[in-house]
């Protein structure tokens, strides 16, 4: 997790067979499950979780996000269909839209969090902008980079999808919307249980 000030983480398989030792080495470790939780921001901060969704061959994409305060209280959620786009474009569009809502509402101490590690890394390390070949992605990232300096403080981090469930649900709702939707203070019924579970610190196990 990187802070910005006016800028920018075996199970051994028992075997009684006589297979070669090299085979046993390859089969001897099973990745342990990872406990994942959504974390509250610090007092005085708001947290934006964002996500994008792209539907396979159809290429139909949508975005979603949720903003909560240090008490895990729901402040704002959004969902929108953005037409045909790949998952990368959907992710950066979701972050951009979320940051626009942050500015509109005057939240100045903001934690940005998403489950697309490549996008998070690009925002954290501006030098990686040179590696982006897609002009549309470059456009969105440049806009994101122009918004972040307007905030008093900003941190950005990656979280596994299990810790980004509310934003993911909003992104899925986006596929159902004919027009952009915004929810203030009260989340839609589809997201309500997740918001409550996050506030209570529910642990979701990630099976790798």
Automatic annotation (TrEMBL):
PROSITE patterns reported in the protein's UniProt record: RNASE_H_1
Domain RNase H type-1 positions: 42-176
Domain of life: Eukaryota
Listed Pfam families: RVT_3 (PF13456)
InterPro entries: RNase_H-like, RNase_H-like_dom_plant, RNaseH-like_sf, RNaseH_domain, RNaseH_sf
A Gene Ontology molecular function term of the record: nucleic acid binding
Classification via PANTHER family: OS05G0353850 PROTEIN (PTHR47723), REVERSE TRANSCRIPTASE-LIKE PROTEIN (PTHR47723:SF23)
Protein name: RNase H type-1 domain-containing protein
UniProt organism field: Rubus argutus (Southern blackberry)
Lineage: Eukaryota, Viridiplantae, Streptophyta, Embryophyta, Tracheophyta
